């Protein structure tokens, strides 16, 4: 990190301001989590590429690290007094042209989903409306369409970037030599390498999914089964059946959660098991048959099957998008799951809630499963560039999502997360499968040793040295 710098004046050729340090940092730069967040040195809000270049030059001259910001939902990125907080909110352009879409560096998932839906199409987007599209891509683009299309970074058509030296470049999968290396790194390990002004991705018509024989054709089949905590064995059986019998068009998830205040028993432990299917209802019911099995349903509190408009598919997550408080994510990309790991993790989650009252109501554990065949196939296609996404052979994602109000709870939250990840990885360890973490949801201060392989880390350091020799951009690889 550069030495302390005292700034007293700002250039007038781009919008920038000093944060009001008499107010909480969250009032200046509202982020999803307040952990690791203090006042930045300066907030810059460029309107075009020229102003980005000017802002980068100003940061370099004043010994600041630059963090470009789209959605402000990455809790592993620390914000502090030597940071230029580069707000990309002026870069909201969305353009659909033929079979592709170009999204600006400040667009959110929700904005892209809504724009696509109007045109009767979809593209690679995340499982939360609030996250930034560029951040989603830089970390790999793991989301709903893993089974159907693979991961997003295998399908990026181009990236428009500004480098640390102020060069404006358009990179593609056909880029070679140093530019090809940079494009590869941006696709999955892209935080801290450049400012991404825009990204171009393919779009697909809803009609190709045959979700409905008649309009509207953008409604997705969703089945949700809610279990009481006492039925953890049934919930585990249902989820593992979906996990062990994947279908490309299906995504399965399980969530340990507390009943909301409006429920008959507020705060009671619940387990949601759900399947989302991008296809016809008859096919969905066949692949998710376990959710209609009487021996499973008889232990549930409720069941619901519906068709949800694609633009509202992420609405269930909205309560978790609230900014502020102290939140931490920790995750494991795993190949094998067992009923024992689910039961043991559920017990850990219950105990964590009992021991930390301020974290009880809103801390959850999320499990997601998909068919990995398409992800693996994409990795075998011939191309000049190779995205940085090691866990393509993993079939499931398990994440602790701790949310609390007292800083003193952090130690217990970190310990809980570590125990959960160790438990869910146990079977992989037995089978000789190395532990891996999904880049975008890595822990604050957790390091990248479980995000990328040692060979990839060395390669990323070489890319960083080539394109950002003086470390202008904060990077999880070297900072």
TrEMBL record:
<dbReference type="InterPro" id="IPR006094">
    <property type="entry name" value="Oxid_FAD_bind_N"/>
</dbReference>
<protein>
    <recommendedName>
        <fullName>FAD-binding PCMH-type domain-containing protein</fullName>
    </recommendedName>
</protein>
<keyword id="KW-0285">Flavoprotein</keyword>
<dbReference type="Pfam" id="PF01565">
    <property type="entry name" value="FAD_binding_4"/>
</dbReference>
<dbReference type="InterPro" id="IPR016166">
    <property type="entry name" value="FAD-bd_PCMH"/>
</dbReference>
<keyword id="KW-0560">Oxidoreductase</keyword>
<dbReference type="InterPro" id="IPR050416">
    <property type="entry name" value="FAD-linked_Oxidoreductase"/>
</dbReference>
<feature type="domain" description="FAD-binding PCMH-type">
    <location>
        <begin position="35"/>
        <end position="206"/>
    </location>
</feature>
<keyword id="KW-0274">FAD</keyword>
<dbReference type="InterPro" id="IPR016169">
    <property type="entry name" value="FAD-bd_PCMH_sub2"/>
</dbReference>
<comment type="similarity">
    <text>Belongs to the oxygen-dependent FAD-linked oxidoreductase family.</text>
</comment>
<dbReference type="GO" id="GO:0016491">
    <property type="term" value="F:oxidoreductase activity"/>
</dbReference>
<dbReference type="GO" id="GO:0071949">
    <property type="term" value="F:FAD binding"/>
</dbReference>
<dbReference type="InterPro" id="IPR036318">
    <property type="entry name" value="FAD-bd_PCMH-like_sf"/>
</dbReference>
């Amino acid at each position: 990190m550069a030495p302390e710098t005292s700034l007293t004046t700002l250039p007038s050729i781009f919008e920038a301001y000093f944060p009001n340090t008499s107010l909480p940092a969250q009032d200046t730069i509202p982020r999803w989590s307040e952990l690791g967040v203090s006042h930045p040195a300066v907030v810059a809000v460029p309107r075009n590429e020229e102003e980005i270049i000017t802002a980068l030059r100003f940061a370099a001259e004043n010994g600041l690290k630059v963090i470009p910001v789209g959605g402000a939902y990455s809790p592993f990125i620390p914000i502090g007094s030597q940071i230029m907080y580069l707000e990309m909110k002026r870069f909201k352009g969305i353009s659909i042209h033929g079979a592709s879409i170009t999204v600006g560096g400040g667009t959110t998932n929700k904005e892209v989903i809504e724009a696509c839906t109007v045109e009767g199409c979809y593209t690679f987007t995340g499982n939360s409306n609030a996250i930034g599209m560029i951040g989603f891509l830089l970390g790999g683009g793991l989301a709903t369409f893993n089974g159907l299309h693979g991961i997003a970074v295998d399908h990026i058509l181009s990236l428009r970037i500004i480098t640390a030296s102020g060069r404006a470049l358009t990179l593609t999968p056909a880029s070679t030599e140093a530019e090809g290396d940079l494009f590869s790194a941006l696709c999955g390990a892209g935080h801290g390498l450049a400012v991404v002004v825009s990204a171009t991705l393919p779009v697909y018509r809803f009609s190709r999914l045959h979700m409905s024989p008649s309009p509207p054709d953008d409604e997705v089949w969703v089945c949700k089964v809610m279990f009481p905590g006492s039925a953890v064995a049934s919930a585990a059986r249902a989820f593992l059946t979906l996990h062990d019998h994947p279908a490309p068009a299906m995504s399965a998830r399980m969530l340990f959660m507390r009943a909301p205040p409006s429920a008959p028993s507020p705060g009671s432990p619940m387990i949601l098991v759900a399947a989302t299917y991008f296809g016809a209802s008859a096919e969905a019911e066949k692949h998710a048959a376990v959710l209609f099995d009487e021996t499973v349903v008889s232990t549930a509190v409720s069941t619901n099957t519906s068709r949800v408009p694609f633009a509202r598919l992420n609405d269930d997550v909205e309560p978790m998008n609230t900014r502020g408080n102290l939140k931490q994510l920790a995750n494991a990309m795993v190949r094998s799951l067992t009923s024992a790991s689910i039961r043991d993790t559920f017990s850990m989650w219950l105990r964590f809630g009992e021991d930390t009252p301020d974290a009880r109501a809103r801390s959850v554990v999320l499990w997601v499963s998909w068919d990995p065949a398409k992800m693996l196939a994409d990795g075998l296609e011939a191309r000049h560039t190779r995205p940085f996404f090691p866990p393509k052979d993993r079939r499931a994602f398990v994440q602790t999502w701790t949310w609390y109000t007292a800083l003193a709870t952090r130690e217990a939250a970190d310990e809980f997360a570590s125990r959960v990840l160790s438990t869910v990885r146990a079977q992989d360890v037995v089978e000789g499968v190395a532990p891996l973490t999904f880049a975008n949801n890595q822990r604050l201060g957790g390091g990248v040793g479980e995000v990328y392989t040692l060979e990839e880390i060395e390669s990323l350091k070489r890319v960083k040295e080539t394109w950002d020799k003086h470390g202008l951009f904060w990077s999880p690889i070297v900072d």
